[in-house]
Amino acid sequence: MGDTTVTRPEAVRHRVTHERTLLTRLRTPRRPRLWFEILLIAVSYWTYSLIRNAVPEQKAEALRNADWVWRTEHQLGIAVEQSVNHAVNSVTWLIIGMNYYYATLHFVVTIGVLVWLYRSHPGRYAATRLALFATTGVALLGYYLFPLAPPRLMTGAHFVDTVQVHHTWGSMASGDLKDMSNQYAAMPSMHIGWSLWCGLTIYALTRIPWLRVLALLYPTTTLLVIVCTANHFWLDAVGGLLCLAFGFTLARLWYGALPHTLPRTTRTLQPT
């Protein structure tokens, strides 16, 4: 009995110490492994697409929500998307370029920034990646809880579906590919969430002036593109911003610091 009484507190202290050590190791930035990151990104994007597209489209509710958002923007005095959409659509070369921008840069730039982080900022990679993944994960809740039709699918609002009109290869939610994607998952806008993640990450981690300017221009241009192509309302962009704020907050809580303030590299980093 005496031995049991003496050793039990020691066992508890040992277990607590082990758990703290494990948690500290998990929260300590380490050099990412290339094979694991490629697998993680591929599986995560596949899972994201699967869940997003598996959410019931709920067309009637999505259209009602779109009407509500449109009325709300009128009350706020910011409902100018239709005018912008029609004005830019009249400039053929510009709107075609925006269609391709919407379809491609969303993925290309995001992957590019991840690769850059992996190569040049391994100590900050995991925290910044966590912010991106958390942003995307919470967006799925938005798609499920608030199905929303994009402006181009509203009835009676007279928005122009620029991909349909100009016959461009441009969107998984228009043209021949529309049946492969949930068209009523416009809130929040991950074009904004991801582009802001890219822009803020580059701006915080580089000191090259022209690159910092491009970093700020990228989400700004993306905001114009999603409105001009009638894929999103202004308020969808606000939703994307809130998701990103959640992502960075989670990364801050887990790693104890914002990603850009972590060491670029550390001696404790493990080799790939």
UniProtKB/TrEMBL annotation:
Superkingdom as given in the UniProt entry: Bacteria
The protein's name: Inositol phosphorylceramide synthase
PANTHER family given in the database record: PA-PHOSPHATASE RELATED-FAMILY PROTEIN DDB_G0268928, PTHR31310
Species of origin: Streptomyces naganishii JCM 4654
InterPro entries, per the entry: Aur1/Ipt1 (IPR026841), IPC_Synthase-Related (IPR052185)
CDD domains referenced in this protein's UniProt entry, alphabetically: PAP2_Aur1_like (cd03386)
Chief place of localization: membrane
Positions of transmembrane segments: 34-51, 100-118, 130-146, 184-206, 213-233, 239-258
Lineage of producing organism: Bacteria, Bacillati, Actinomycetota, Actinomycetes, Kitasatosporales
Keywords of the record: Membrane, Transmembrane, Transmembrane helix
Any single Gene Ontology cellular-component annotation: membrane
Coiled-coil portions: none
Inositolphosphotransferase Aur1/Ipt1 domain segment(s): 68-248
Subcellular location: Membrane
Topological category with respect to the lipid bilayer: Multi-pass membrane protein
